[in-house]
Amino acid sequence: LGYPPHRGHRAAAMSTRLWESDIITYPVETVWALLRELDFSRLTPTAVASSVLTAGAGATEIGSVREVTGRDGSKRSVKLTELSDASYTLSYDVTAADGGGSRSESVVLRRITEGNTTFIEVTADFGAAEATDAQRKAIRSTIASIKTVLSAPPAPAAAGGAGGAA
Q1: Residue 162 CA: distances (Å) to CA of 30, 39, 48, 90, 149
Q2: Residues 6+ positions from 63 with CB-CB distance below 8 Å
Q3: Which of 25, 70, 131, 154 is least enclosed, having the fewest CB within 10 Å?
Q4: What pLDDT is stored for residue 99 in this prediction?
Q5: Is 124 exposed, middle or buried (0-12, 13-18, 19+ CB in 10 A)?
Q6: Residue of 123, 71, 70, 122 lying closest to 97 (CA atoms)
Q7: Cβ atoms within 10 A of the Cβ of 107, count?
Q8: Strand intervals (E) in 25-145
Q9: Signed CA dihedral, 37, 42, 46, 48: sign only
Q10: DSSP helix/strand/coil, 59
């Protein structure tokens, strides 16, 4: 038995699905505050050089698009397809700029009342392509990076006031 798609998540016929999960030792509201903007330069700073909003009125607007550039020079487009603050879910489509394929991903956070921690699950559908170990490792690495970012001490506030745009 496979896992059913989440609301708004479209599994393509003959697709390969990866599913990864973990426990994050922070409250769901803290994890959601980091995830909901879908800013990969904040989520995975060691792998992503830039994450620039190119379409949409705001980062959390359905249909907004980010152009993401990896530290290795790879480029991809990420389009937000679902976001729910009520259920702590988001879904997005990723397309590689070099024609290297596309995938749909969903992230779901669930509150764990024991210890006020968060269960995170990430699903990725790879169209008709076969998911590779490298893709599975990349999803695991993203979850690990989120945990690292959350446990890092906060950056000192910039002198002179408000921060700039993402």
Answers
A1: 21, 18, 24, 27, 21
A2: 55, 56, 79, 80, 81
A3: 154
A4: 61
A5: buried
A6: 70
A7: 25
A8: 48-55, 65-70, 75-84, 89-96, 102-112, 117-125
A9: positive
A10: coil
Q: Which residue has the tokens 């009342």?
A: 113
The answer to whether 81 and 7 have CB atoms below 8 angstroms apart is no
Contact (Cβ atoms closer than 8 angstroms) between residue 57 and residue 51: no
Chunked mean pLDDT (size 10), the chain, 166 residues = 44 69 92 88 84 82 88 88 94 77 87 91 77 72 79 57 38
**How much is the pTM?**
0.72
The residue whose two tokens read 């708004």 is: 8
Q: What are the DSSP calls for 107-126, one per residue?
A: EEEEEETTTTEEEEEEEEE-
**pLDDT for the residue 121:** 92
Measured CA to CA, the distance from residue 154 to residue 158 in angstroms comes to 12
Contacts of 144 (CB under 8 A, 6+ apart): none
Q: How far apart are CA 90 and CA 73, in angstroms?
A: 26
Residue-level length of the chain:
166
